[in-house]
Design goal:
single chain; globular; TIM Barrel; 226 residues; six-stranded parallel sheet; three-stranded parallel sheet; alpha/beta
Length: 226
């Protein structure tokens, strides 16, 4: 019986570490938020891995409905498509830091911060870790760059599912203060196929507007009085 105790401790430690790295409410490796206040019928629509060649298609849909969003951009994609990154900012959307390359965090975080600011004039206040995975040292880097981590209330899996499945999943997960995560890029691929994401935005935005939700940037959702 006593031999089982160490194994149980290992299992508990492994479970805790998995939650600390990927848990949406975890702040072990750096301050993180995953939803806004529940007292307002508002939510935030966010996009990861851009910009891509198809980001302007999403911007047009958002403009049609006068909806703001937050784009967590990869620094390498900003370097590749600076004019599209600038268009995101020029249209009044918020830009967050998504590291320079997906899969890395600490060393690439500063590089992404500097790249985004150089090309767009925007210095991000928000950071979303690639794949939502956080690790040792991230908290110190976030504090140094005054970045707050942002997870999500619902993620669409728009890189692997059909649009009707993504829309249904997101619509079923929405509540006051929700943060929704889609992807206007596919990691660092050139000309990625994001037709599922575009179709999802076309259908999801008017559906949620009809339900009475107001779309806000992460900054406005989390800090409504600013």
């Amino acid at each position: 019986m006593h031999a089982l105790a160490p194994l149980s401790a290992v299992g508990a430690s492994t479970s805790f570490l998995a939650w600390a790295v990927r848990g949406r409410s975890a702040s072990v490796f750096g301050r993180s938020v995953w939803r806004g206040p529940r007292d307002r019928r508002a939510l935030a629509l966010t996009f990861d891995d851009g910009p891509s060649e198809s980001t302007p298609d999403i911007l047009e849909i958002l403009a049609e409905h006068n909806v703001p969003a937050t784009f967590f951009q990869c620094g390498a994609n900003v370097d590749r498509l600076p004019e599209i990154a600038r268009e995101v900012a020029a249209r009044g959307h918020e830009i967050g830091n998504h590291s320079y390359r997906p899969g890395t965090i600490e060393l690439e975080l500063r590089r992404a911060q500097e790249t985004i600011e150089r090309h767009t004039g925007v210095r991000p206040a928000w950071f979303r870790a690639p794949y939502g995975a956080r690790w040792f040292g991230l908290g110190g880097a976030q504090r140094e760059m005054q970045l707050t981590g942002v997870m999500w209330s619902a993620i669409g899996y728009d890189w692997s599912r059909r649009a009707n499945e993504v829309v249904a999943r997101m619509a079923a997960s929405v509540s006051n203060g929700a943060i929704l995560c889609l992807h206007d890029g596919r990691e660092l691929r050139e000309k990625p196929d994001v037709r599922t994401t575009v179709e999802t935005v076309q259908r999801l935005v008017p559906l949620l507007l009809d339900r009475g939700y107001k779309f806000e940037t992460i900054g406005r959702l989390l800090c409504p009085k600013i």
